[in-house]
């Protein structure tokens, strides 16, 4: 794929990592953030990641931090937004971007769950707008969901899929713009049942995580649920569903157990307690374990 000029808007957790991936694969990247201190540390954060991963540190020089949004997007072929998960903010930002960007530039939002249709509805040219949902950390987790709206052109989808495949990602096409796309719908369907099991006293939170990590979680990276259903047989899957599905939680909103945790200030690791209690050492150990696992998985892919 030809070298492209990429503008990344938002230099936080996701934005700096997305910039890093494009720069590492020879694209020139402009990086904008409205918070000067975040922009000022972005290149150092990318450098630290590259050193840690044993990758070409010189790639960071292809990233140009910009303190002006117009400067960041003016010449871009592709603009990807990774600012806070806030619909009015994203809507306003894309309208500003459209007033400066080239008419043929493609626009993408990295929102986790907000429908792309809602974000892009105010644009004059909605055919060029789509979603690209990356996973954290962007330089270690392969998937990028490429989401089209009813307005998105086939050319924009095709170009974006090729762009991400060429930088080593695993892009997939999500054909309908539904909240949470594919990955987060699946993830949070599982989380709801996890919380229901704890809420209903079936087991404690630690047991939920142990059951998953020591059983089907072991296989998930190599055996998807629908491959698994074919492996065991759709007839067996049907029989299981007849017994189990009527008993699985179908609450249409957040579960009371979760609401209560939040109301009591049990916000997870940042407050030291959520579903479980966390010492700073336990938090650090968990983060290290996840990072080591993802690095190992990536080196096996290579
Ligand atoms: N964290 C994740 O695991 C994850 C995964 C996939 C997608 N996402 C999505 O990616 C987006 C960014 O998430 P994050 O985790 O990187 O958040 P973050 O808080 O780390 O970064 C957001 C950045 O946006 C900047 N910002 C705020 N307003 C801005 C503006 N008007 N213009 C430019 N920059 C602005 C902030 O200064 C901050 O640096 C969100 O939509 C989020 O839902 C997050």
Overview features:
302 residues; alpha/beta; binds nicotinamide-adenine-dinucleotide; 49% helix; globular
Q: Can you describe this structure in just a few lines?
A:
With 302 residues, this protein is α/β, with parallel strands linked by helices.
Helix content: 40-55%
Beta-strand content estimate: 5-15%
Give the helix tally. Answer: 13
Distance between the termini: 20 Å
Can you put this structure into words, describing what you see?
The protein has 302 residues and is of the alpha/beta class. It is built from 13 helices and eight strands. The protein has an eight-stranded mixed beta sheet. Helix 1 packs across helix 2 and helix 10 crosses helix 11 (234-244). The longest helix is centred in the last third of the chain and has 22 residues, at 280-301. The two termini are 20 Å apart. Bound molecules: nicotinamide-adenine-dinucleotide. Nicotinamide-adenine-dinucleotide (NAD) binds at residues 9-15, 32-35, 38, 82-85, 89, 93, 110-112, 134-136.
Secondary structure elements and their pairing?
Elements: E1 5-9, H1 13-24, E2 28-32, H2 36-53, E3 63-66, H3 69-73, E4 78-81, H4 87-100, E5 106-109, H5 116-120, E6 129-134, E7 143-148, H6 154-166, E8 170-174, H7 183-199, H8 205-213, H9 216-220, H10 225-232, H11 234-244, H12 256-263, H13 280-301
Parallel strand pairs: 1-2, 1-4, 2-3, 4-5, 5-6, 7-8
Antiparallel strand pairs: 6-7
The structure holds nicotinamide-adenine-dinucleotide.
Nicotinamide-adenine-dinucleotide (NAD) binds at residues 9-15, 32-35, 38, 82-85, 89, 93, 110-112, 134-136.
């Amino acid at each position: 794929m030809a070298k492209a000029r990429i503008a990344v808007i938002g230099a936080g957790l996701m934005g700096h990592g997305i910039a890093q991936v494009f720069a590492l694969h020879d694209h020139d990247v402009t990086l904008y953030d409205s918070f000067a201190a975040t922009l000022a540390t972005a290149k150092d954060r990318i450098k630290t990641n590259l050193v840690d991963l044993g990758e070409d540190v010189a790639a960071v020089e292809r990233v140009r931090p910009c303190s002006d949004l117009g400067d960041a997007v003016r010449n871009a072929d592709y603009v990807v937004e990774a600012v806070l998960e806030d619909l009015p903010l994203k809507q306003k930002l894309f309208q500003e971007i459209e007033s400066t960007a080239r008419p043929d530039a493609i626009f993408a939002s990295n929102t986790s769950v907000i429908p792309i249709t809602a974000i892009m509805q105010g644009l004059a040219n909605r055919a060029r707008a789509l979603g690209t949902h990356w996973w954290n950390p962007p330089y270690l987790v392969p998937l990028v969901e490429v989401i089209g709206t009813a307005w998105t052109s086939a050319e924009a989808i095709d170009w974006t899929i090729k762009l991400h495949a060429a930088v080593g990602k695993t892009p997939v096409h999500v054909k309908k713009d539904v909240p949470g796309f594919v990955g987060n719908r699946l993830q949070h369907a599982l989380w709801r049942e996890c919380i229901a099991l704890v809420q209903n006293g079936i087991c404690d939170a630690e047991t939920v995580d142990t059951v998953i990590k020591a059983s089907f979680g072991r296989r998930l990276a190599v055996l998807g649920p629908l491959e698994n259903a074919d492996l065991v047989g759709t007839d067996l899957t049907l029989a299981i569903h007849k017994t189990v599905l009527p008993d699985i939680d179908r609450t249409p909103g957040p579960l009371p157990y979760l609401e209560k945790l939040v109301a009591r200030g049990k916000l997870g690791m940042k407050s030291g307690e959520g579903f479980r209690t966390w010492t700073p050492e336990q938090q650090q150990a968990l983060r290290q374990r996840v990072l080591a696992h993802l690095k190992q998985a990536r080196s096996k892919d290579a």
